[in-house]
């Protein structure tokens, strides 16, 4: 399968599943938007959720906002690649768009928690690249949750009190990025994706490519 993007070097490769996780407010959404904007060949996996829509969010772009019954139905029909309960709401990854993108040679970006990342790893270890984003300090995290201005003080307190628990999963991830400055953090995440795209095991077209080089050299 080919990844036909701007940086495609002509060698076929398997698509990968690029996962960003972090405590709420550390910057996953911001980094995901930048990646989608600036990295050709990368598609966002849009999750289904039962949580209420925030101001500024768009159904179908940020999430598929569904009720509990619809979510349970999707899970029962095996339409979700993984799902988990976070902050008393259900979140899950619709399976079909991910499979379609991967088989078209695209990479897929996931903004999911540690529970979902574990499930993806169990299903497709070789194809999962996971990055954990940390805030530079607790004070910065709280400030970011407030400046985002999308949650009530009570919800923000809940997110802050869960942050430590979520952070305890950092060591399960392949890469750790500290989001102090957004430009630096973006450059780091972008470098990880670029390097992972070049991994020998994913480059299924290498044998053919090298054979052709050898044929040219020997003729
Ligand atoms: N397992 C799983 N987690 C998800 C999914 N979609 C979102 N999440 C996680 O659910 C948590 C809460 O997300 P959200 O309510 O949007 O708040 P945020 O943390 O401010 O982005 C975050 O840790 C997300 O990464 C999903 O499809 N599966
Ligand atoms: N490096 C950074 N410095 C300052 N503010 C940031 C930085 N990264 C993200 N933010 C801001 O912090 C808030 C939370 O970021 P967001 O991407 O929504 O986090 P998450 O998706 O992890 O919950 C947003 O208002 C965002 O603009």
UniProtKB/TrEMBL annotation:
GO CC annotations on file: cytosol
Gene3D superfamilies tied to this protein: Guanylate Kinase phosphate binding domain (3.30.63.10), P-loop containing nucleotide triphosphate hydrolases (3.40.50.300)
Catalytic activity: GMP + ATP = GDP + ADP
Class in the EC hierarchy, top level: transferase
Binding site for ATP: 22-29
Family annotation (Pfam families): Guanylate_kin
Keywords: ATP-binding, Cytoplasm, Kinase, Nucleotide-binding, Transferase
Domain spans labelled Guanylate kinase-like: 15-194
Coiled coil: none
Enzyme Commission number(s): 2.7.4.8
SMART domains linked to this entry: GuKc
Annotated compartments: Cytoplasm
Function field: Essential for recycling GMP and indirectly, cGMP.
Protein name listed in UniProt: Guanylate kinase
